[in-house]
Amino acid sequence: MAADMDTEGAAARRELAVRAAVEQGLLDAEPLVCLLDTAGIRASAAALTAAFAAELPSGTPVLHAFAVKAAPLVPVLRLLAGAGLGCEVAGPGELALARAAGVGADRTVLDSPAKTPAELREALALGIAVNADNRQELERLDALVSAGPTASPIGVRINPQTGAGTIDALSTATTTSKFGIALRDAGARAWLVRAYLDRPWLTRLHIHSGSQGVPLALIAEGVRELHALAEEINAAAGRRQVDTLDIGGGLPVNFASDEHTPSYADHVRALREAVPALFDGSYGLVTEFGRSLLAKHGLVVARVEYTKTTGSRPIALTHAGVQVATRTVYAPAAWPLRILPYDAKGAPKGGEPVAQDIAGPACFAGDLLATARELPLLAPGDLIGVPDTGAYFFTAHYGYNSLPRPAVHGFAVAPGGGVRFALARPAQDLSAIVAEAGGGFRDALL
Ligand SMILES: *Cc1c(COP(=O)(O)O)cnc(C)c1O
């Protein structure tokens, strides 16, 4: 598979950033910080844009909408907007973040399986693209659309029922998935075509059938179903009623090494093989990538507080655990993470590999980032780096044990090797934790 990213450059930037984080005191006040490589994020956004642009006739409308849930941080959305990307949002919180980042309504797409009437009304008033999830939502939209004009392009999400990947919880295209209208259920296809003919304002079709653990060919098979349905609707309508296909996101990420595989170019190639007509310029395209844009550009850096040996197993007790790597802790087989060892100064740590457990700070036995991992024996004061955590890890904080949300710093490396950090999210302080825990309502239950 082709790599369209400079992996050596990214690894070199990471090593400089860890050392600079120590030298510049980022780890003095807090034992845990999260870093984002802004050059890497820009490079991924550029790779995505280039991969599709290379295959589409010029002038084909394309919106790459970043799936906000992967990294719901306003400065990240702003950075991506500067690189030409929009936002895919799944509710009022994410919409508020996109708006705070200055992302326009015409660059925003609202998907979610449980939109309230108020959310739909707001989206249509703003002119945000909306993808309906189900028949009842379409009926709500009927009422709203007939009540007044809207600039919102509106589509329907389908479930191609093409099958699961290797992670059940992330497989959106199973026979019984909760998302979208199931295309292969009895009568569903005819119902959908009729629904479009009855609603001339339905101009889009939406699918999101990929995710971690889903092979590219299976994602492409879903997109082929989407395209075929659009052609069928347009033939029945006798006009190009469906003018835009939203093909979702779901490009898997390699958590085993620094290589960006599969690449966006690989993904586009798989799509081209399965659905050549997708690239003939007859449809505008929307994509909704999340994990593949951010994952490899995030790094958790945590101090080793103590070490011990229990039942002859060395254990490093660190400050990175379930609060920043929830999926890895609860489903370690599906979400293995690399652990990079550093000494107290932030230099890569060498030494004979010893099987160790890397534990987090939370008070339950399963709070482990790695079990029996072969690493140079860690000592108190050393650091661990946890790469590939830029999406759905520290940006999806889990508030167990009232552990604070750690600070997120973007970093950029100057040509001479100097590292400049920019705070993108401050660490949550104790007063914020108390306030979120009802601190202002102390006597409410008396
Ligand atoms: C989560 C989600 C995405 C992004 O998926 P990734 O695997 O992060 O690329 C895109 N579209 C929808 C509808 C989603 O729910």
UniProtKB/TrEMBL annotation:
InterPro entries: Ala_racemase/Decarboxylase_C (IPR009006), De-COase2_C (IPR022643), De-COase2_CS (IPR022657), De-COase2_N (IPR022644), Orn/DAP/Arg_de-COase (IPR000183), PLP-binding_barrel (IPR029066). The keyword Metal-binding does not apply. The active site is at residue 363. Residues 296-390 form the Orn/DAP/Arg decarboxylase 2 C-terminal domain. This is Diaminopimelate decarboxylase. Its cofactor is pyridoxal 5'-phosphate. Residues 50-294 form the Orn/DAP/Arg decarboxylase 2 N-terminal domain. Belongs to the Orn/Lys/Arg decarboxylase class-II family. It comes from the Bacteria. Keywords: Pyridoxal phosphate. One of its GO terms (biological process) is lysine biosynthetic process via diaminopimelate. Gene3D superfamilies: Alanine racemase (3.20.20.10), Lyase, Ornithine Decarboxylase, Chain A, domain 1 (2.40.37.10). It comes from Streptomyces subrutilus. One of its GO terms (molecular function) is diaminopimelate decarboxylase activity. The modification N6-(pyridoxal phosphate)lysine is found at residue 69. It holds the Pfam family Orn_Arg_deC_N.
